[in-house]
Amino acid sequence: MTGYVLKRILLVIPTMLVVMTIAFFLSKLVPGDAASAMLVLQGIQTDGPNAAKEYERNYKNLKLDKPTFYFSILPDFYPKNIHHIISASRRQQINDFLLQKFRYTDIQDYLSVRDSIIYAKSLVQKDTSKGNHISNLIFETQPAKIKTTIGQLLLYGNADTSHKIRALETSFDNLMRNKSSLYFPTLFWHGLDNQFHLWIKEIIAGNFGLSLKDGRMVGDKLAGAIKWTIVLILLNVILSSLISIPAGLYAGYKENGWFDKISSFIWLLLYATPVFWLASLLIVFCTSDRYGAFLNIFPIPGTWYIPDNQSFFRSFGQFSGQLVLPVICLVANDIALLSRITKNNVIEQKSKLYVTLAKAKGLNNGQILKKHILPNVLIPLITIIGGRIPAGISGALIIEIIFNIPGMGRLMYESIFSSDWNVVFGILLVVSVFTIIFMLITDIIYAVVNPKIKTAMS
Amino acid sequence: MNNKNDRSFILSKWIIGIYLLVALFGSFLAGDVPIFCNDNGKMSFPLISSFFNASSFNVKYSKETCIMPLIPYSPLNIDKNDPSAMSPFEPSKNGTFKNKHWLGTDKLGRDVASGMIHGTATALKIGVISVFFAFIVGVSLGMMSGYYKDDGIRISAPLLIAILMFITIGLYYMIMEWIIFNPSMLYFSLGCLVMIILVRASTGWLNKWEYFKKYNVPFDMLLLKVIEVRKSFPGIFILLALVSLFAVPSIWNIVFIIALLGWTEFARFARAETLAIKEENYILSVKVLGFSDVRILFRHILPNILPTLIVIACFSIGSAVLLESTLSFLGIGLPVEEVTWGKMMAEGRNMNAWWLVVFPGLAIFILILSLNSLASGYQKSNFSRLF
Which residue in B has a C-alpha nearest to residue A21's C-alpha? Predict the structure, then answer.
């Protein structure tokens, strides 16, 4: 038994690593720049005097200058680590050049010559028309436009600057000449000093970084949100099991009876009802007296204001009225599936030989149901209810958003809209790890409870 | 087959047929372009010609000489005569019976009935196309893994090296050249084709070489690992995270993401069914006859597992439609100009307008209900055929 449990736990580790890797790479694909978001958060103006310095500090703090993974396979004209370039516009420009397959060394040459002219412009040149021309080059990455601009500069340039512009033309010609149409992939090894490694280390230590929206620790935000999600899921699982298991047992016990027929029909309808439709209907019709005073049953989903140091039980008491409607929606969504599975299990077990034997022994139906069928039905239900809990987090997401409950789903939703990627992928990771652990626990409990698996393993 | 007497099965078939017709011919039911015009003997079909020529949308038609669609409003045009957020029971200022807003208007004064009809097309497009791709990928991988298991594919070391080389280098150039340097789907699919041909050719050539020792490819184990990883990401969370990666919202992103997340379900069922059917005598006998694996898989196994897969496909279309409406209800991932049921419901909930909540929701509800009962009808008929 312990051998099975250990093996099962060890098998989880590679899955966990793959999940983490996927979450990491997804978080690298998002649009936007984390360092400039931090800059905004710190109240530093992006065009202020110390913006470049502060950007560099943030960039290095967030370890964005490190290579992304342990190794990279890039075409041979690429630099080893493009993230090393700190200025965002510069990095973007070099990237644009690289995408046109220019060699990195040539790009550097061209850019340094160009920068020296742009820098010298204010000292040497007073002519505005030429100044205009050279400033056209600052963000220009298209070869055709660069060529025209250089041609114009040569045409209208005076003797002081023409040698510099000739140097620029040479470096640009060099750039164009060495453009590689064919290339080989090159493997770069970066060692342990990379973003992924440092990120995984932080995650294992429980540090998800800072929220880009309000500067709080992501871990703290998650801890505040996860409580409400857990409350919702627990209430959902307990209530739906309490309703659906007896209903399913009775319906299966008296198959094709009146109860079975009515409940099957109701479950069929509930199963097809989108949970957000049910929630919207209940909010529109049952929270106000607009359509008749007798329909004003539930409180309107309001905003949740929870003071920072208020204990959880107190806030639970305060908002428990608000939780009634969301829990009803969640339970309605779940009971259909659970009771149908219970009923089918009962019907399946009823046709087994041991039931016939029990009947032959002279037991009445109630005794057979209680002593023989029930244990056999409940054991598979453990897996199903265990599987419903991670699925319940997904179901809770939209309910949290509709009813303003400050849980994980709502946090994720708000963070997506404010581009707070640390929070988004922190939540994704936490929820996935929770799911993996729950699948593991369900499997182990199932193995412990089920005598068939127990004997198979020993 | 006892389907012929199953009333709910027949009814749901009809309902889904109607949904499909509405999705296909929505512009004939609702829109502001007339179907047929007779302008002093000059006959024209503006709606049909507008499919081929987009500029003809700007032409003004006099409504007296034309036959308009049943609901003469486009889902995006604002009706300036009637108030916005008009309930279906309020009298219309447009006067004639034809121009009434049957299901009211929304926040901006657009016709709800027209939006419902055009929303059908969006929902079904996403549902059917994403399930189609998920079906192809999932079923082929699942069948392979069920048929070959961990010891069915045996390849020698040189072949393994050749295949790995072709796949890694091929994938590398494909990603670099056709996705990063020169984004184009045509070149990408061309690259796929070249890679498949190379791998296939090397397989045929190198596997005949008996000199080297052969090793098993743990195809089944790999697939099960992938399915496990997919299962550890809870549905809507990974969906939201993936959708938010795309800077420009579009229907095709959502189709792609739903297919990417959904194929494992088909793979799971196709694998299980293939495993069960593989040991049957007729498969063993065609193996003895010396038929190729591809022929056995597609001609003998696929037709027998198809009924189960159709059941899964029906449920999957339902859940894809549900995912699409959830996303548009949340306002994530779908372009602004796209009319969807979910968007209307979100608007109705915010404004407390019952007609915007009830009708789109009812459309989703009926569609999912009939897909579910279609699936269970198929399930029953499979069951009765097998036993």
Answer: B229
